[in-house]
Structure formats: C-alpha cells, structure tokens
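Researcher: Next entry in the queue.
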Amino acid sequence: MQNLVIFVVLGIAADDVFVFTDAWKQSAKEKALKDSINKRMAYTWRRAAKAMLVTSSTTGFAFIASSFSKLL
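Model: Structure for this entry, 72 residues:
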C-alpha cells in the first residue's frame, strides 16, 4: 500500500494541472489581462482554485474510502 502513495499524489496533481491549464487558456481571452502576466496569473488562480479544491478533495476522499475496503 505504501508503494501506491506516488500514484495517489500523481492522481491528485494531474487533476489540478488540467484545471489550472484550462483556466490559463481561458484567461487569454480576457482583454483586461493581456497587459500584465501577474494579473493574468492572479485571475487564473482565483478561477481555478475552487475547482482544484473540489477535484483534489473528491480524489482524496475516494482513496481514503478505498483504503477502508476489505478488498485489497
């Protein structure tokens, strides 16, 4: 079970990368953000943070729930 921790971490991180990348691409369409990369990054973070929290939480809870399963 301890050897599978890397897959848990990668599973949670993969969701976050996809969500953040999508928010970054969407921020390119905002005209007010084109002049400053700092504003664009702040906008992207605010937009993606809630979705990343939800995806990470559900993945984490699924792994925790499966750890209590009698099936190995």
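Model: The mean pLDDT is 86.
Researcher: Noted, moving on.
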